[in-house]
Write a structure and sequence with these properties.
Helices cover about 15% and strands about 35% of the residues. The chain has three helices and 17 strands.
Length: about 250
Amino acid sequence: TQSTWGTFLDSVCEMWLLGLFVSLATADVADKFPVIEDISPKAGIIHGGTYVRLQGKNLGQVTHCRFGLTVMPVLREPGHQSPTALTCVSPAQDPGAYEIQVSTDSGRSWFPLPSRRESHQITFSFYDLPRFIRVDPDHGPAVGTTHTRVMISGWNDSKDKEKALVMFGDKVAPVENAECDPHSKGEKCWLYVTVPQVCFFSSTAGCEQSVPIRVSLNGQDFTLDPDTKLQFHYDNQWTYSALLEEYSFETPAI
């Protein structure tokens, strides 16, 4: 009986040690799996083309990203493999949130594994082009500094609000604040912005112009609204002739 008991204890110890070895080996392998910890931006337009920066661990051997079921290659310069960051371009997708996964073997296997998705799932949201409703005020001096607001529809919590930008012609201004009608579900939102300067002192006319307004909700994808063609009008207040008229200066005789 004592011998049988000893044999049983030996078997238990062997099984425990084997289990410990397997657990340690599995943990060691799991530590080498690619892990996505964050992405930037977190949303882009449904037409695709957004450069998405992935940050995490063990990313040096990643060859492809997958947005939902759409596979995209990693953008990487030859010889520049970072273990903590990589870039993929978003594909065209229907509106919605899609899980991002990465592969180290050209798409044969994907990470995070199904058993780890609940705690490691990272999603990228695709949104339709925002619609422009109006800008108020819609004009100001060419020197800039006009505080205006642009009303749009299509804003929701999936956007990177701190990255939103408004472009006046070819001049970019950051969105300083954003407010939405709480009952509109993102269909009536104001973007508050300070209009940038369009030109400096000039001896010839040309500062007065109406420029198209574009909006980016993620810091990259600037879009127009073809239906409204929203514009901002720069008043011609900084040209030489305008200053003469404003202050009743006389042109000196030569």
